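Q: I have 195 residues here and want to know how they pack in 3D. Can you give me a structure?
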Amino acid sequence: MLTAGEARRLVEQARSELVDLAKALVKVPTPNPPGQEEQAALILKAKFEAEGLKPELIQESEDRANIVVRLPGAGKAPALLYDGHLDTVGPGDESEWTDPPYSGSIKNGRLLGRGASDMKGGVAAEAMAAILAYRAGIELAGDLIIASTCGEETDNLGAYTLRNSGWLNGVAGIVIAEPSSNELLIAEKGALWVE
């Protein structure tokens, strides 16, 4: 078991690694439509594989993919899912940007670019949190599943694939690093379609 001080040191040592991962994701244009999230998924795949993890790239169509990896737990608790999406809204008129939308530049301690907040920064944070737990050899009570999916902005394509392929079986909770004004929100607003 890590002490609080050991955990802080581990996180501090990985700070620049986290920033580099987030920057790499922001630099990949994934506006949806059309999506084209595969290149971002491949960045995460390479990162997980470099750690010795075995991610699964789930192809949806040409240039569209999800990436999922499981850290096995001891089977004493249900699984937990870290979930995020790789697509973004479009950049709009790029001439109105003070920095190019896919620059991934850092100014005044902030990562700039389309998707930095919603939600490539969160995807990078979830991936690095799992990687740090793996590096530290933390014994998880239940499985930890990290999923970065395509299609959240329009059709939830990746979320449906996760559900339909069995990746969500046994999941008791989901953590989504979606921007929320730095507030922890418990629950989801949901949707209701009425005809």
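Q: Anything worth noting?
A: The two ends are 53 Å apart (CA to CA). The mean pLDDT is 93.
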